[in-house]
């Protein structure tokens, strides 16, 4: 099977020496912590797993992110944070000489990263920038987007910290940097380079910094976190506390598929079984099973549980469903998406 789930006979906290952990939707949701996140990460560290928090958010500096996490009972140093702003600055260095003028559209994190990379920061297209670095910040508005558009129209290289169309907040889903980048693209017709996930640039930088050998990417978005894991050659754990659901994972194309699946960050602390094929087309994962018959998914096991229940049986159903649907698709068989139910309710 192409891009299938993998077994973790040891809890990931013991089998991997470094976890690259996403923030929004994994460790916290907006200003609020996600249940079990702090305790799970503390235990994972105690078992020998190092952590680097990797975020597509380019608006905050690593120190600010570290303070936020520490305030949520996840003690973190700035060296344990890798932001899309830092990756954006590194991407600029691949083509531009230090001292080059860069128009920055974004927050303090991106401004600091670009300056620390040795570039001269400007705020107007009339300053003749050779590049535009664009990242998310709450204060970004029409004036900044217009300056970016003018500069790109005059030939400046457009580099986005990331192209996430949306971000999760405590109140719901809001426009992300990708939506703001799209406004500049609409005005110029020029597609930008992107430094953030799903590009694996940040992952490679974090791994090099840590000197790690066995690396696990932990995220909640298939189109960024897990796509970046696949693209970078790392195993990826998809947790169901953020944007992408278990149903999304079942229906994911090969380049977005996770290697491991868990309800939340407690998944770092348990073994992960791999579904195995059996008679009559069933894929079994402990007591759960799934198969595809005449283009429709059939399941055995719980598909809907409450946060107070043991979530593992329902996660096993999702694992079995992934194996059955992915195998069918990889064999060229069509699967009706309507036959795939919502799976694993954690709240």
From TrEMBL:
InterPro entries: HAD-like_sf, HAD-SF_hydro_IA, HAD-SF_hydro_IIA, HAD_sf. One of its GO terms (molecular function) is phosphatase activity. One of its GO terms (cellular component) is cytoplasm. SUPFAM superfamilies: HAD-like (SSF56784). Gene3D superfamilies: HAD superfamily/HAD-like. NCBIfam families: HAD-SF-IA-v1 (TIGR01549), HAD-SF-IIA (TIGR01460). PANTHER family: 4-NITROPHENYLPHOSPHATASE-RELATED, D-GLYCEROL 3-PHOSPHATE PHOSPHATASE. This is Haloacid Dehalogenase Superfamily Class (Subfamily) IIA/haloacid dehalogenase superfamily, subfamily IA, variant 1 with third motif having Dx(3-4)D or Dx(3-4)E. It comes from Cellulomonas marina.
């Amino acid at each position: 099977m192409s891009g299938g789930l993998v077994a973790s006979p040891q809890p990931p906290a013991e089998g991997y020496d470094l976890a690259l952990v996403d923030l929004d939707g994994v460790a916290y949701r907006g200003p609020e912590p996600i249940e079990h996140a702090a305790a799970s990460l503390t235990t994972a560290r105690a078992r020998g797993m190092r952590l680097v928090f990797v975020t597509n958010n380019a608006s905050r500096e690593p120190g600010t992110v570290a303070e936020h996490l520490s305030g949520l009972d996840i003690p973190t140093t700035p060296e344990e944070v890798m932001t899309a702003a830092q990756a954006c600055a590194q991407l600029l260095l691949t083509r531009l000489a230090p001292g080059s003028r860069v128009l920055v559209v974004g927050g303090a994190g991106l401004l600091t990263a670009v300056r620390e990379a040795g570039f001269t920061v400007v705020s107007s297209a009339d300053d003749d920038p050779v590049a535009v670095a664009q990242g998310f910040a709450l204060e970004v508005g029409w004036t900044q987007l217009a300056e970016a558009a003018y500069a790109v129209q005059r030939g400046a290289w457009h580099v986005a910290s990331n192209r996430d169309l949306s971000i999760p907040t405590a109140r719901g889903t809001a426009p992300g940097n990708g939506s703001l980048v799209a406004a500049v693209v609409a005005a110029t017709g020029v597609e930008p380079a992107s430094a953030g996930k799903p590009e694996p640039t940040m992952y490679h930088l974090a791994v090099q910094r840590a000197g790690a050998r066995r690396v696990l990417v932990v995220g909640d978005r298939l189109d960024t976190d897990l796509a970046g894991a696949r693209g970078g050659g790392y195993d990826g754990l998809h947790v169901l506390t953020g944007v992408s659901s278990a149903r999304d994972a079942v229906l994911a194309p090969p380049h977005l598929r996770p290697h491991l699946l868990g309800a939340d960050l407690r998944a770092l602390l348990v073994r992960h079984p791999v579904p195995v094929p059996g008679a009559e087309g069933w894929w079994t994962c402990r007591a759960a099973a799934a198969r595809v018959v005449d283009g429709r998914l059939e399941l055995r096991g719980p598909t809907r549980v409450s946060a107070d229940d043991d979530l593992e049986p329902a996660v096993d159903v999702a694992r079995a469903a992934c194996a059955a649907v992915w195998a069918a698709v990889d064999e060229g068989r069509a699967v009706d998406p309507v036959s795939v139910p919502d799976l694993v309710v954690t709240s």
